[in-house]
Amino acid sequence: xxxxxxxxxxxxxxxxxxxxxxxxxxxxxxxxxxxxxxxxxxxxxxxxxxxxxxxxxxxxxxxxxxxxxxxxxxxxxxxxxxxxxxxxxxxxxxxxxxxxxxxxxxxxxxxxxxxxxxxxxxxxxxxxxxxxxxxxxxxxxxxxxxxxxxxxxxxxxxxxxxxxxxxxxxxxxxxxxxxxxxxxxxxxxxxxxxxxxxxxxxxxxxxxxxxxxxxxxxxxxxxxxxxxxxxxxxxxxxxxxxxxxxxxxxxxxxxxxxxxxxxxxxxxxxxxxxxxxxxxxxxxxxxxxxxxxxxxxxxxxxxxxxxxxxxxxxxxxxxxxxxxxxxxxxxxxxxxxxxxxxxxxxxxxxxxxxxxxxxxxxxxxxxxxxxxxxxxxxxxxxxxxxxxxxxx
Length: 392
Prior knowledge:
- The chain is an all-alpha fold.
- The chain has helices spanning 2-35, 39-67, 69-87, 93-121, 127-135, 137-151, 158-178, 183-186, 206-236, 241-266, 271-291, 296-320, 327-357, 362-386.
- The protein has a single domain, classed as Growth Hormone, Chain: A (Up-down Bundle).
- It is globular and about 50 Å long.
């Protein structure tokens, strides 16, 4: 029961994180109407959270190996909840950017600890399924944020950040009381009490770690390019605002369901087949979306399936990340992988913007990034082939 409670609380935290990660995009129209930012200022607003995520993931993972997963996780959730509320009271673009930077620090510190704590709390034969289950909360939270975009008019954009902040602030004290530290992290570990960050590259872990980093970088580059630019690309392809928003919800919901399914498949006899299908389907669906005629039903269906492939691939990566590191360095190992992925999440939207500014249409833009998607799939397949046995 304690294990289920821990995983359930981690799922709720992941949903809060998923909502907040997409809150800026949902609120962008209202922010632009009120403050009239330049494109550079709006870009700084969007990138501030991601920059915070990068540093938060590194610091959160490292700290959790020293003081425990629970303390860092609860503090991170409280931080991003508080700063999300503060975002709602911003008075100009610079104050918005600073609030999002601090929000990103909390978001970045939370995610690697959600993954590590779930992996260490779950039964050995359910670790992959449990991590994928918790990660699925992220796209479910994103789907809620997309739904909010249909219900909240632009002038009321502050309510989006208030909602995204109050929920984790309510959750943090509950987690402080009821969340249990994983036995693995709480158990004294033989040997040195501190392990340097470079230990994730020692004892034969370097090749696997580099495959993990490459997969995370390219995977999140693809995911965030789609999250940021898909509504615009679909609108350019002839969809109305409502149809594009509905397709975005389908992308998130389909992804969340596929993430849940991937977790179950990773624990069963179809593990290899499910990984292979996922990473073949991902570039194939990108190509199909680029070549599809402008029919909104067909485009919506492809986007739904693309969401399934993208999020299932992420569920696989997050499920794999803890398996290659012992408890003493699991926090820093997962944190480093998440941080490298966040670099990809910065590059993806900027790459989409650069291609769009160069005059590339929807089809050409998707074809331009297709080689990176293929390379990411190859890296992930190599990661799966080289994966070590899960360590305690």
